[in-house]
TrEMBL record:
This is Prepilin leader peptidase/N-methyltransferase. It is found in: Cell inner membrane; Cell membrane. Keywords: Cell inner membrane, Cell membrane, Hydrolase, Membrane, Methyltransferase, Multifunctional enzyme, Protease, S-adenosyl-L-methionine, Transferase, Transmembrane, Transmembrane helix. Residues 135-244 form the Prepilin type IV endopeptidase peptidase domain. Residues 20-125 form the Prepilin peptidase A24 N-terminal domain. Plays an essential role in type IV pili and type II pseudopili formation by proteolytically removing the leader sequence from substrate proteins and subsequently monomethylating the alpha-amino group of the newly exposed N-terminal phenylalanine. The chain crosses the membrane at residues 12-33, 129-147, 159-176, 182-199, 231-250, 262-283. PANTHER family: PREPILIN LEADER PEPTIDASE_N-METHYLTRANSFERASE-RELATED, TYPE 4 PREPILIN-LIKE PROTEINS LEADER PEPTIDE-PROCESSING ENZYME.
């Protein structure tokens, strides 16, 4: 019969393994964040050329796995020793080994965030499908947040699979029962879709993109319709705070577009871990 000490050691090992896995996957997420928008742009150009009847121009093959990672400034191929999560960036002092061009701190931040969130998910949910599902959701939200922040795009190639995977996890009620997950997916999309059209008909401007609808639909599929009000409330609050800070501190114009995806993602992570107590809290305040 396992003792309490054995169980604690097993859980500690599980948390450690998930944390290391998070660091490694975080390194791959940096590739996704950098390359996926470029792949999307290349495909759009090819489609436009095809519609015009032009011959497609030959270009270097680009995917998430090929070619090998290299410095965009000098083309220096990044070796395995230079690609160790966080450690390599520190040893290289945040610069390319070939030309000493600064490497964005976004790379180690994504790796650290992935590792810490995965370790926390392992501790919070323990052994089982819930921890695995939480890590998958966190990885997708991290990639979507960074891509949206840098390009104001939320790729369908991530949001759509994320929605369907959420429904599959909830076949057995991992995070919500299946009817709640299906209603969450529909309600998440329609709620922001309605806000979009009300704002557009009122002001004549587009307040958000369709990618935001799809991301909230995916979060609804994972968390259930009951968590949608809290998710929208938290994301709106976070977006308002950051937006005001940018206007006041960074002197950013009020008309400058601010991506909403990172705030939806942050709210989704908060609800994933603390959705029920936070719901009880805000209902109590109301």
């Amino acid at each position: 019969m396992p003792t309490a000490l054995t169980v604690d050691l097993d859980l500690s090992l599980f948390i450690f393994i998930c944390g290391v896995l998070g660091l490694l996957v975080g390194s791959f997420l940096n590739v996704v964040i950098h390359r996926l928008p470029k792949i999307m742009e290349r495909d759009w150009r090819a489609q436009c050329a095809e519609l015009r009847g032009d011959k497609a121009t030959e270009s270097e093959s680009l995917s998430l796995v090929k070619p090998r990672s290299r410095c965009p400034a000098c083309g220096h191929a990044i070796s395995a020793i230079e690609n160790v999560p966080v450690v390599s960036w520190i040893l290289l002092r945040g610069r390319c080994a070939g030309c000493h061009t600064p490497i964005s701190p976004r790379y180690p931040l994504v790796e650290i965030s992935s590792g810490l969130f995965c370790a926390f998910a392992a501790w919070h949910f323990g052994y089982g499908w819930a921890a695995l599902g939480a890590m998958l959701l966190i990885w997708c939200l991290l990639a979507l947040s960074c891509i949206d922040f840098e390009t104001q795009l939320l790729p369908d190639s991530i949001t759509f699979p994320l929605l369907w995977i959420g429904l599959l996890f909830n076949l057995s009620g991992t995070f919500a029962d299946l009817p709640s997950a299906v209603l969450g997916a529909a309600g998440g999309y329609l709620s922001l879709w309605l806000v979009y059209w009300v704002f557009k008909l009122t002001t004549g401007k587009e307040g958000m993109g369709y990618g935001d609808f799809k991301l909230l639909a995916a979060l609804g599929a994972w968390l259930g319709w009951q968590m949608l009000p809290l998710t929208i409330l938290l994301s709106s609050f976070l977006g308002a705070v950051v937006g005001i800070a940018l206007i006041v501190l960074a002197k950013r114009g009020r008309s400058a577009p601010i991506p909403f995806g990172p705030y939806l993602a942050a709210a989704g992570v908060l609800v994933l871990f603390w959705g029920k107590p936070l719901t009880r809290l805000y209902i109590g305040l109301l």
